[in-house]
Amino acid sequence: MPPPLHIALLDYRDINHPEAGGAEIYLNEIFQRIAAAGHRVTLLCARYGEAPAEDRIGEIRVLRTGNQATANFMVARAALRLARREPVDLFVENLCKLPFLMPLLTRAPVLPVVLHLFGHTIFQETNPILGSYVWLYEKLIPPVYRGGPVVALSPSTADDLARRGLERTRIAIVHPGLDLKRYHPSVTVPRSSEPLLLLVGRLKRYKGIDTVLRGFAAIQGRVPRARLVLLGRGDDEGRLRALAASLGAADRVSFEGYVDEDTKIDWLRRAHALVYSSPREGWGISALEAASCATPVLASDAEGLRDAVRHGVTGFLIPHDDAGCWADRMVEVLTDAPLRERMGAAGVEWAQRFDWDMEAGKMLAIVEEAAAGRGREPVKP
């Protein structure tokens, strides 16, 4: 049996961060299991609020440094300091935001895990100067990480990386999973008596929630009692509230903020459909969570979401910025009970394929190979 590895995991946030999202859920679920299997995992991430510099979350030791703006520099620096004190067998980078560029800083093995990259969507979220900085930083990914193994969350993300210049044969896919003991239909939580659409996620400009609001406002004469509930928080909430009011839909749109996991599951069970309007995702874990609760999903026909939603089977994929098409699909799923039942049943069956233990096993095999240096081109002198 090989000796335990020391894995340094670099990310911007830990699972307890107020803005933790799908990336943090994914990495926490996978690497908690790898740590429980006997390996040592140290997460290096940004500090926030009153969070201590050193912490422990489950089986993972957490070291926090810097802040959200400086994390790509400070976290990388902290990882190198850690390796000088305590030998590290493998650095694992979350490339969901700016890359940490560890292959330029160490000759130790580095495994990038790519949930999704912003591409041009970053310009929808921030100003042109910062957007250009992120966009140009992403241009460094192919030359810096070429020649080594890469993990992608979905086939869409793997294809995106290949188009950017990484070798497709070196990219392994490790999907997200589900806790199917928690995420399932329940006879004790009935569907809402009113037609109910649900959106789950951070309220960020680049998530494209505007299109959902415009589509929803357009159905008020066709489905008069329909409601839209948004679960999550983010810096775009004020603008979205103002948009809902300007569309005359403020009384039918509810911003519920952050809710705990059990409350979120109850909302998923009550909703008639989940709406997921992002123009780019690594996967869209909420889409899979909804499917497991027998709730159809209306999602953007976008990278990542195409992997999570089976069009016409577990939900519908919709042109991202076509509010009229969103409205038509909302009406269809809210008014056709047999369609919802078929899609709900298919969603439960689809979700059964995704299991955290199985996916963590895939990741562990990749981690062990990467730490041993297998699957990597020789470093040129």
Question: Top keywords for this entry?
Answer:
single chain; alpha/beta; 2 domains; eight-stranded mixed sheet; six-stranded parallel sheet; 14 strands
Descriptive report:
Residues 119-125 have low confidence and may be disordered. The chain has helices at 22-36, 71-85, 122-125, 128-138, 141-145, 155-164, 209-217, 237-246, 261-270, 285-292, 305-308, 323-335, 337-351, 356-371; strands at 6-10, 40-45, 54-57, 60-64, 90-94, 110-114, 150-152, 171-173, 196-200, 227-231, 253-257, 273-276, 297-300, 315-318. It is of the alpha/beta class and 381 residues long. The protein is elongated. The two termini are 33 Å apart. A hairpin with a 2-residue loop joins β3 and β4 (60-64). It has 14 helices and 14 strands. The chain folds into two domains: 6-177 and 356-371, Rossmann fold, CATH 3.40.50; 196-351, Glycogen Phosphorylase B (Rossmann fold), CATH 3.40.50.2000.
